[in-house]
Amino acid sequence: MKCKICLSEANLFGRAILMHEHEVDYFQCPQCFFVQTETPYWLEQAYQNPITESDVGLVYRNLNLSHASKAIINQYFNWQGQFLDYGGGYGLFVRLMRDAGFDFYWHDKFCENIFARGIEGDFNQPYELVTSFELVEHLVDPIAEIREILKLSDSFLFSTELLPSHSPKPGEWWYYAPHEGQHISIYSQQSLRYLAEQLECNFYSDGSSTHLLTRRSFPENLFSILKNPNTIARPSLLGRDAQRIFSLRQQGHSERSSLAIDSVHQDEQINLEQSSLTLEYKIIIDGVFFQLYKTGIARLWKSLLEVWSKEEFRNNLLVLDRDGTCPRIPGINYRSVKALNYQDIDSDRLFLEAICEEERADIFISTYYTTPINTPSVMMGYDMIPEVLNWDLRHPMWVSKQAAIAHASSYITISENTARDLEKFYPQVSGSTITPALCGVAPYFYPASQLELMTFRERFNLRKPYFLLIGPSMGYKNAELFLNGLDQLVSRQGFDVVCTGGSAPTFSAEARSLIPDVMFHALSLNDDQLRAAYSGAIALVYPSKYEGFGLPIVEAMKCNCPVITCANASLPEVGGDAVLYVGDDDANGMTNALLEVQSPNVRTQLIRLGGEQAKKFTWQNMGDTIKKCLFNQVKTLREVDNVLIQKILILIDWIQDEEVILESILKFLQIVQNVENLDSYEFVVETGEISVEDVDTFLSSGMMYFLMENEAPELAGLKVKFLSPQELDNKVIGKIVSKICLRDPNGIQLMIQQIPDFES
What we know:
Number of strands: 27
Distance between the termini: 71 Å
Largest sheet: 7 strands, parallel
Shape: globular
Strand order of the largest sheet: 13-12-11-14-15-16-17
Helix content: 25-40%
Structural class: alpha/beta
Strand content: 15-25%
């Protein structure tokens, strides 16, 4: 198959089952790395629902892209020109841009226009700029179709996720979206450059997801404007558009659904996963550690997510996937976001806060020290290694850690010792806010069979009995203690040393020269090979001076591997009485332990005790502890919120003519517009016998009309909650301090009548 971008011969790259029924081949070009499917015969079926149900980031993406587009247009284009959003979906982006004062128009041949009705584009006129977001991956013939777009404007701003540099195959990267069947063209940065050459355009990119094809010339760092966007306020077109809608309505030409044209804020809630509307609370987990490292913390979080994926608790979670680096675990909800840049931490905090607000998160927890601005957070503490070892705490990573500690309202640590150290180094943290949650061990750690051990030894040419080292060799891991102890072992020539879990051994030349007659094997092992390495070792030697937990000790004990370690930090919590302890500078003690562990009686005892000790550590236990901590924190925060936020009941007769309902809503807004400290009130709207969606539409329309006639920016942050009559039970009524009754009070229950009227 020929590459659709550079016409080179594309090679078979992978296969996937699309839409749960079509087995489809994917091809990748070796020249430009563009990935394409075979001829997409399934598209008619795929576009029966043009906006897929899994696109839960629809609202957030449009908000984010509208901010980016405004900044780029302000800086590089004529903001007074006309613009077209090609493939505009429901029209939400067009609505947002018009509300911000930019003359945008809508076009989409597949999707219904909901938010930008009457603002359709005209292909017979030129545009200053054409935008198109999350569209080009749907194109069957990218060059031909984008060429047609460029007939409308000399500049084309678009978004699509770039193929990661390691070229993940279908099933290894979320963006292929095989369950939807619409992503048939996947672009690399090289392929977009080839595309620009074919179309005789200049190409600019943020290197991730937002790109520009243009016949104009701009600075190479064009997208750097997004770091400090130009926030010039333009006169909104909302009033003009709203007046047109209401004029049509007065003429009798407007349907009731037209009133929803500007119900952006409330429609965000409706367009999110419907299940989220019924959740008791929502937790955002930043999966940033998967972007940074593949070490023990990554194993910890992958294990926790696997536990939670089998529980109802999974519905309370949203994992932020940084640049496609998170492991995809069935049952867990993900949201793809940009990678963390430690050189721009402040921007990342704002970015996280925007997500938390859009997702209505109750609480935030990071896999590695990131924080939003305002959303409450629980901080996960793994160790105090930088503090204990006097590292430079001005490093951006440790600055982030300190910010996370300062921001958090409660803390989880992976050992009792880490909890004590957290209090020691950060006295502002109260011990009552710390919950230790000890790590577990994966079920795939168990003793290897003789066949597995033989295969492992043959694979890595292990001809002698060996000791096992885990992690980087030097520094606080203290591997030199092992070398010094081994040097004093008379029989050392009879052993090899296997090192894994970090970089190749970096022992000092002096230490290494002590034992030139011992073979060292620096191995990179998968889980099965690591299990075999544990099972076949004389012992795991883990002489660390400090650990937050010490997961390799538990893994070794599960695999019937004796352990030699030091009684430092958390290690006695993990090892208990089932390991051999030596002083962290006691070479003679290490030599004695290396001899002792070879005794059959000692080995048998250590293996038996180790098996019992390891049973104490399970990911299920850790997951349950963290889950309870998060739940209690949300409960506490809500109790505080309930004390601070006064609830006011709004009673409107929804079974009336639309004009009467609109008048009632305008009265309500008139009452509250001059209220001081409006943020301290939540308005509980009783929905009567009609749906929440209909009430939402009415309220949105009234808000738009009111804002057209009045300057009341404080109403933009109005807290509103919808409840049916059935949900207005005694418990809810007990929290309501006042009411605004805009209907005949006859028939209202006595307990509601007893609530005093609101005095503004």
